[in-house]
Specification:
Elements: H1 5-8, H2 14-23, E1 29-30, H3 42-53, H4 66-80, E2 90-93, H5 95-107, E3 113-118, H6 124-130, E4 134-139, H7 149-159, E5 163-169, H8 181-191, E6 197-201, E7 224-229, E8 242-245, H9 248-262, H10 267-278, H11 280-306, E9 319-323, H12 332-343, E10 345-346, E11 348-349, E12 360-364, H13 369-384
Parallel strand pairs: 1-10, 3-4, 3-5, 5-6, 6-7
Antiparallel strand pairs: 2-8, 7-8, 9-12, 11-12
Helix pairs in contact: 3-10, 4-10, 5-6, 5-9, 10-11, 11-13
Length: about 375
């Protein structure tokens, strides 16, 4: 039977696989997935209900409803001072996941090199492979988990015209670190005289704790497309609404691919997302969730450091990337399994996130303070009895 060889070579999602592997442990506390624990705000749910009641049941424009694209335009200008045309520079997708697929498939040709700062979210690599590209990993574990201009320039010098795309994710999964405006401007300076396209996955942009979020699109507008959505900012993972914005020259091929992949997103989900992104209350909703995550971070990081973990300060998203104490098994996968089975706490091994992640674990704090307090207690007991 004929199977696409690229598809056949792809392994199942490693994060999901490890989560499934540990989910059967009795009384397990799961700090594995990036799944917000908040309920969707009532006014956002009501917008979806109103869409259904009003028989909003026919094909929407492929790029997304006009109402949602207008809300996205407002959101990007209000939050990040970036302006995009409703008709030609915005595409609504089925979550940021589709955005990853659409952009990489639209921009990457067979044999093209795609630069990926590592450790990195584990969905990028297989999608690059499906597009026929080859990943160029840059180990950021010695540079505070951030890509530096020197590292970027070195990759450009080494690969030349074969390096066609740079994929940046910030605030970052799995590390929780992000870039300052100055750091992004310095990267943009390296890229500005090249033909390299930047895919900026900014799905956690609303979750920054110590400084505002900045986008590299501010400094490199003609070469940058941004991926975002409502999954993390408004706890709407199940609604599957993301979006891609960028200059029309880059959005046009993405819009074509999107049209032939999914046609359009669901009307009730788009109505809900328009309310979340376009209303004053939606902005307050996101701010309230951000403050709750900040409180959790400010508890969890020092508590884990007291237990012997080394942790780069997470400034965004809702992950802690913790280096294992020196006196435990440094095989993070085996440590993660052991912690789940004997300590009753499930985390994600750092090696799943590629080079630079070995000897770390990723802990999601998208859970209540009560769960986090109990998890720290269990981890402490586990380490005491190690």
């Amino acid at each position: 039977m004929g199977v696409n060889k690229r598809v056949a070579a792809i392994e199942p999602n490693a994060i999901r696989a490890f989560d499934d592997q540990t989910s059967g442990v009795a009384d397990i506390l799961k700090l594995t997935l990036g799944e917000p624990d908040f309920a969707v705000p009532q006014h956002v749910k009501q917008a979806a209900i109103d869409s259904i009641i009003s028989d909003d049941s026919h094909y929407a424009p492929s790029k997304g409803s006009i109402a949602l694209r207008k809300a996205i335009r407002h959101f990007m200008m209000d939050r990040y001072d970036l302006s995009y045309d409703v008709d030609s520079e915005i595409v609504v997708t089925l979550g940021a996941t589709e955005g990853i697929y659409d952009t990489l498939t639209a921009f990457v040709n067979d044999g093209d090199k795609v630069l990926l700062p590592a450790p990195n979210f584990s969905m990028y690599d297989p999608t690059i492979a499906l597009a026929g590209g080859e990943v160029v990993y840059v180990d950021t574990s010695k540079s505070d988990f951030l890509l530096t201009p020197t590292q970027l320039q070195a990759a450009i010098d080494e690969y030349g015209d074969k390096l066609t795309t740079v994929l940046l994710n910030y605030p970052a999964n799995p590390t929780g670190v992000t870039y300052t405006a100055e750091q992004l401007a310095a990267l943009a300076e390296v890229l500005q005289d090249t033909d390299i396209t930047v895919i900026a996955d900014e799905i956690y942009a609303e979750l920054t704790y110590d400084a505002p979020h900045y986008s590299i699109a501010k400094y490199l507008p003609a070469q940058t497309v941004i991926l975002n959505g409502v999954s993390k900012s408004h706890a709407m993972t199940g609604y599957r609404i993301g979006f891609i914005v960028g200059p029309k020259e880059l959005i046009a091929p993405v819009a074509t691919l999107h049209q032939f992949t999914v046609t359009s997103a669901s009307n009730p989900a788009m109505a809900a997302a328009a309310e979340a992104l376009g209303s004053a209350q939606g902005k307050l909703d996101s701010k309230g969730m951000r403050e709750a995550y900040r409180e959790r971070r400010d508890y969890l990081v020092p508590a884990l450091r007291q237990l012997g973990f080394e942790i780069p300060q997470p400034t965004g998203a809702f992950y802690v990337f913790a280096k294992l104490p020196a006196n435990v098994n440094q095989d993070d996968y085996e440590f993660g399994l052991d912690l789940a089975k004997r300590g009753k706490v499930a985390v994600i091994p750092g090696s799943i996130f590629n080079i630079g992640g070995e000897g770390y674990i990723r802990i999601s704090y998208a859970s209540s303070m009560a769960v986090l307090h109990e998890a720290v207690k269990r981890i402490g007991t586990f380490l005491e009895n190690y």
